[in-house]
Amino acid sequence: MARIRFVCGVCLLVGWLFNAAWAADDSKKTIQGTIRIRADLIQHVSPSDRLIIKLFHPGNGVELDAKYAILPTFTLPVDFRIAPTIDMSGRSKWKSYVVQAFTDKDGDVLSVVPGELLASTPGLIPLGATGVVLELNTLRK
Predict the structure, then answer these.
(1) pTM, two decimal places
(2) Does residue 12 sit within a domain?
């Protein structure tokens, strides 16, 4: 009986260590930060707007591996965490990405309507980055 308890205890410990290692490794595959708004543009956000977080890798004028996270309701500032698509072995296609956030007034992430706001990283952000700040400070065009 003591041997069974010992084996079960070891199995639980190994499982816990595996999960802890996986969770720590998972943060290396994401980009985390906060989305906020420039104070003088707050009037452009309405309760019916959605907040879109977009991740992509730029390549020859095209957005590669684009991924969207949609928040149907939100209060700014809001924390975010986004990860690229991964392959079957758990790897992403690239090591760094551009992150954008924008408001969506018409339910179509591809169209732009008056009053939608945009924030973008100035360039590529490596996976595993934390503390990224996106400020909605530009009207979308």
Answers:
(1) 0.80
(2) no
